[in-house]
Backbone:
């Protein structure tokens, strides 16, 4: 060997080995930590032995050593990437491609396919998975951890119930059989309990209250309400829809005055009107504050209790709670025995009462990247993290994506912009982000596929599960 040149750019690292005589044979091998090349019978001067920096982050140096069998060229790397050897006049050029993509796939059930991606980018390695669900092959539905065990994962029990009682039972989960209260559970547990073949984590949630933050409806029952007009996906059969939910539930008081609900099953806020259902727990768990006032409303719509804070939530009913001026407004207008009419309005927005999972922000509209902030913090909008997303193709095929992250040598994660472009590459017309970071979990046929960034699977408030039609009867769900 007479010369060695090594250099890197965002896409490639090139190493040129000058040879006085062309090699008759070269033998290359690779491992998780390095690429190795042996040039049998070749020798090199001492000045070329040792380490040669490339200036590249991921392929930082070339190591040259002399062995009895010939020259040994070792190129340590932080992750495995394609390498090609090209014999040229006067030597060899080795090219390492840092930008690449490989894909494999396997069927999980008829119409349901898991794709696995290993990619190289200018930012580093990325590992991702998607599950594609063709229309008519499965139900993609949200499952709340508080709805476990599997016997409580059905949407029945409210059909045919009319009047105020029917409205309330649909909104607050009168027929819910679990009764376990707010809780968190791993995606794998929710997936296994529902008879799913695949699942991912769902929307955002509160660690302290163990409840979703943002819209969640399971089987037509509202678990939590819209927040900041963020994105949600309606998962009725045949026509999934992603949109920002701008409408809010509202109440009508005895004097025909009305008011919009600011928060549904959400920690108490200043100067706000809040609604608490049994999905929140047995009591509102609020503390007295300026102007706070609460009324308990039975399933019949009648006011059965009132107080300053921490009111009990009637079974099948709800508590209407106000703080500041709205608390004083409520106290001046409502008495025990009055009737309060609750108008969900969420169903009117969707045109039905489907399963709905909130998240955000929207990533793709009409096949083009279109990201809005939706009042999310900078770490979600601008960070490079593990990610979870869902999209819908023009033919109704659902695409669920999980991206591994925070694994420096395996997967660095994606920015929201990169995730949006990845969703476009997967052929979606519309897509939205879901909770990410340590919550990101993608599960298929009994195994968690990614390495969660917490080091182990995180317990979350809800999940999206894929239930083949052959298994749908086991959950009690019907079309």
Residues:
């Amino acid at each position: 060997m007479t010369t060695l040149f090594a250099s890197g750019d965002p896409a490639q690292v090139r190493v040129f080995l000058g040879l006085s005589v062309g090699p008759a044979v070269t033998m290359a091998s690779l491992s998780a930590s390095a690429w190795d090349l042996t040039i049998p019978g070749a020798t090199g001067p001492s000045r070329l032995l040792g380490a040669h920096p490339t200036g590249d982050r991921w392929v930082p140096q070339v190591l040259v050593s002399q062995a009895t069998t010939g020259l040994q060229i070792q190129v340590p790397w932080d992750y495995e990437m394609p390498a090609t050897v090209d014999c040229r006049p006067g030597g060899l050029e080795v090219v390492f491609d840092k930008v690449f993509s490989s894909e494999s796939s396997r069927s999980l059930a008829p119409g349901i396919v898991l794709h696995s991606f290993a990619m190289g980018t200018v930012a580093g390695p990325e590992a991702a998975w998607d599950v594609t669900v063709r229309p008519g092959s499965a139900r993609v539905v949200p499952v709340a951890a508080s709805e476990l065990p599997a016997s409580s994962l059905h949407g029945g029990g409210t059909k045919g119930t009319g009047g105020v009682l029917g409205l309330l039972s649909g909104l607050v989960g009168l027929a819910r059989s679990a009764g376990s209260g707010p809780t968190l559970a791993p995606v794998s547990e929710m997936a296994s309990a529902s008879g799913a073949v695949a699942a991912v984590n769902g929307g955002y949630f509160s660690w302290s209250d163990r409840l979703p933050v943002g819209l969640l409806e399971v089987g037509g029952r509202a678990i939590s309400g819209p927040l900041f007009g963020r994105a949600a996906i309606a998962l009725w059969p045949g026509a999934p829809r992603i949109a920002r939910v701008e409408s809010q539930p509202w109440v009508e008081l005895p004097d025909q005055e009305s008011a919009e609900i600011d928060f549904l099953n959400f920690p108490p806020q200043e100067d706000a009107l809040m609604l608490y259902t049994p999905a929140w727990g047995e009591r509102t768990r609020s503390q007295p504050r300026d102007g706070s006032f609460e009324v308990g409303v039975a399933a019949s719509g009648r006011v059965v209790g009132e107080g300053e804070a921490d009111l009990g939530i009637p079974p099948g009913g709800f508590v209407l709670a106000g703080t500041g001026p709205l608390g004083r407004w409520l106290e001046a207008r409502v008495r025990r025995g009055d009737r309060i009419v609750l108008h969900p309005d969420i169903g009117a927005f969707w045109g039905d009462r489907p399963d709905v999972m909130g998240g955000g922000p929207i990533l793709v509209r009409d096949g083009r990247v279109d990201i809005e902030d939706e009042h999310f913090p900078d770490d979600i909008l601008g960070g490079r993290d593990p990610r979870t997303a869902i999209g819908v193709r023009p033919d109704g095929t659902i695409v669920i994506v999980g991206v591994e992250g925070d694994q420096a040598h395996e997967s660095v994660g994606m920015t929201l912009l990169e995730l949006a472009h990845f969703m476009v590459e997967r052929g979606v017309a519309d897509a939205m982000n879901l909770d990410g970071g340590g919550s990101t979990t993608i599960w298929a046929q009994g195994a968690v596929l990614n390495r969660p960034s917490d080091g182990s699977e995180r317990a979350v408030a809800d999940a999206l599960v894929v239930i083949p039609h052959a298994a749908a009867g086991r959950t009690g769900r019907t079309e």
Summary: Residues 250-343 form one domain.
